[in-house]
Design goal:
Order of helices and strands: EEEEEEEEEEE
Strand content: over 45%
Helix content: under 10%
Structural class: mainly beta
Radius of gyration: 15 Å
Number of helices: 0
Oligomer: single chain
Length: 123
């Protein structure tokens, strides 16, 4: 199977920056998409940004121009650079990676999630 390990969360003041990292491990055959989601207290999880294997990116409107997603398929790592952070960005951030992994007989799809990392932005 595929495991994801996140790092980089923390407590910052409004206007400051953070960089989240997520590394995938396991018998990964290919990666289709990598993304970051977040879930604020009392709210549903929402998609923040995604990047495909060919480098196409997409962002939720509220982070456009402030956040940048990047990925390295060879290193099986995805990053989220967050600039000009606002208190409303406070949430637990989860990485998500989808692709296929190798089994002894074939390839199978996977859809894996990280454990989540807390980002808190004070005003």
């Amino acid at each position: 199977q595929v495991q994801l390990v996140e790092s980089g969360g923390g407590l910052v003041q409004a206007g400051e920056s953070l960089r989240l990292s997520c590394a995938a491990s396991g018998s990964i055959s290919s990666i289709n998409t990598m993304g970051w989601y977040r879930q604020a207290s009392g709210k549903q999880r929402e998609l923040v940004a995604t990047i495909t294997s060919i480098g196409s990116t997409d962002y939720i409107d509220s982070v456009k121009g402030r956040f940048t997603i990047s990925g390295n398929n060879a290193r099986k790592t995805v990053y989220l650079q967050m600039n000009s952070l606002k208190p409303e960005d406070t949430a637990v951030y989860y990485c998500n990676v989808r692709g296929s992994y190798n089994t002894p007989w074939t390839r199978a799809p996977f859809d894996s999630w990280g454990q989540g990392t807390q980002v808190t932005v004070s005003s």
